[in-house]
Structure formats: structure tokens, C-alpha cells
Amino acid sequence: MGGRSFTVAVLIVGGRSFTVAVLIVGGRSFTVAVLIAGGRSFTVAVLIGRGRSFTVAVLIGHGRSFTVSWHRDGPAQMLADFSGTLVADCYSGYEGIALGSNGRIRRAACSSHARRKVFDAKDAYPVESSLVLAKFQQLYDIEDQANGMSPGERAALRQSAAAKVWDSLDEWLRSDAAARVLPKSKFGEALGYIRNQWKPLQTYLSDGRVPLDNNEVEQLMKQVALGRKNWLFIGSVPAGQRAADFITLVSSAWRNDLDVWSYIKDVLDRLLAGETDYAALRPDVWRHTHPEAIREYRVSERRDRADRKQYRRAARRRNTPKTTH
Q: For the chain, where do the domains classified as CATH 3.30.420 start and end?
């Protein structure tokens, strides 16, 4: 793991940005239509990333030069100075970025993607898929037990418990039962996906800071996807960049449980008044000097949801007989 930082647009005003130390980044991209002269449109990929206490929403490309494709150029530019772990799906662009980073970037694959492929293929091979899904369930149960632990404690638990589950899955993947699965079937492709991403899927075992999946970033996509449904398109390339800037700002405030209106208004008022301490205007810093703007009910709701989920999974573990597969 590298300990360097890279520059992300946490608060964008007049093109300014701040350098924030981030060691774990999640990446996910999708497309938005951009309207151009003559009523035509094209699609631009949008990259969503997750830091520790802020959200990065960046239209792929920089300045006015956008990558109008799924090529890796945009993410590569954003991560040019990054050292750490990139958690993402298995899009070849991310793999190419990691391979071309000279060891600066280590890629971690998303277990949720691997599990979903098995789940979608369960009808053709119900017995075999149920066994693989049970392995993933064990992995998620172990992560539940790690809630509240320090990164070091979490890594130790993963090494002692989750590594054994992966070893068990590896043993089954080498078995005659797995060999009988047709390679071109959906389930065969799901198993091929797991085999091809075997090492990145286990990256998280050695670092308690790396998540098991990329679901948190996947959820961030809903914010832009809902906007895309309402906008239908973005009026121009510069408008798309401004939209990405404001999405970054608003989403970061929301992730810090702030009253978004109060935060945005105060930031704009202070900037117009000549404020130059831009780091103090970041949502994760601003909240400490404005406790009245923190929406405590969001904290309580999130904690209650997490407690209910943990209780349900603990109850299932008590009621599920152990298997020896």
C-alpha cells in the first residue's frame, strides 16, 4: 500500500481543488447523454469514486477534453498520482490502470459482482450454485462479525476465518462437480469470472481497510442515475463538468450528514466574502464547526439499519447448520 495522496475535486470553486490523503478508492462508471449543436447528442462516461468522508463525481477527462467512450483514459488521468488500492468491478480499463501503475495501484475485485453472476445463473445448476452462494454468505457473515473492529483486528479475522472459506471454494472449483459445468453456460461463465479474478477478489484479506465489495460506490450511482432520468441530457460539455462539480459538493455534504442547504449557502457566502481557507470549507471539516447543521437523525437511522441487519444475520447463523463442503 502506498501512503501518498492525490488531488480530488472535493470543493470545486473556480477550478480549485484540494489534496486529500486517500488510500482506498472505489470506481464505477456509466454514461450520460450530452446535447451538442444541431440537437444531436453523444454519451460521456462518468466516474464515481468514494473517499473516506467525501464523494468524488468526475466526468471522465479533464478541463474541456472529455473521453467520449469507455476507454480508460479518464480514470487513468484521475488516478495518475494515486498510490493505494482501487476497488472496482472487472472492467478491463481498471485492470490496465493497475498493471500500468508500476505497483502504485493494487486492484481489488468486488465480491458482490462475483456473487451476483452466480445468483443470476442458479436456475440451470441449482445445487452447485447454492453451494457457491453459501460460501459467499459465509464471507459476508464474517464481515458482519468484523463490524466495529479496527483495520488490524478485521484483517486478523479475515485471515483466520475468511481465508478458510476461500480455500474451501478453491477446492470445490477444482472438483469434478465444477468440471462438469458447461463452460459456455451462465453458471460456467460465473465460475470463470471467479477463477479469472481469484487474486483481486482476495486482496481485501490482507488489509482491513479494503471492503469486501464495491457496494457503497454502486449506491452512489443512484444519485446521478436519478438526476439523469430527470435531466434526460446535459446541455453541453462545460455544463456536464459543472454538474459533476455540484454533484460532488452536494453528495459529499450528504455523506457527512449535513443539512445540504445550510452547508452550500454558508460556503458560497464565505467565498463571496473573500474566504481563502478552502480546506476549512470541506464538508468533513466544516461539520466540526457547525454541529447545528448535522442531521443526527440520519446517524441514528443508519445505525438502526446496521443493527437490524446484523441481528438478522446473527440469527441466521445460529439457525443454519454448519456444512463440511
A: 6-108+215-249
Is residue 249 predicted with pLDDT exceeding 50?
yes
Predicted local distance difference test score (pLDDT) of residue 220: 73
In words, the CATH class of domain 6-108+215-249 is alpha beta
DSSP H or E segment with residue 308: helix 296-319
Q: What is the pLDDT of residues 28-78, one digit of tens each?
A: 555 566 655 555 554 544 555 555 444 444 443 322 223 444 555 666 776
- Name the H helices within 175-294: 176-179, 186-196, 198-201, 215-231, 237-255, 260-272, 283-289
3-class SS of residue 34: strand
**Residue 324 backbone dihedrals phi, psi, to 5 degrees:** -115, 15
Give the pLDDT score at 9.
Answer: 38
Q: Which residue has the cell 455544463?
A: 239
Strand bridging mode 18-20 / 84-88: unpaired
What are the distances in angstroms from CA 78 to CA 7, 8, 50, 106?
8, 8, 13, 15
CA 161 to chain centre: 24
> Residue 107 forms beta bridges with which residues?
86
pLDDT given for residue 231 in this prediction: 76
How much is the pTM?
A: 0.74
3-state secondary structure of 187: helix
Residue burial 167-177, b: 16+ Cβ < 10 Å; e: rest: ebbeeebeeee
Whether the pLDDT of residue 212 is over 50: the answer is: yes
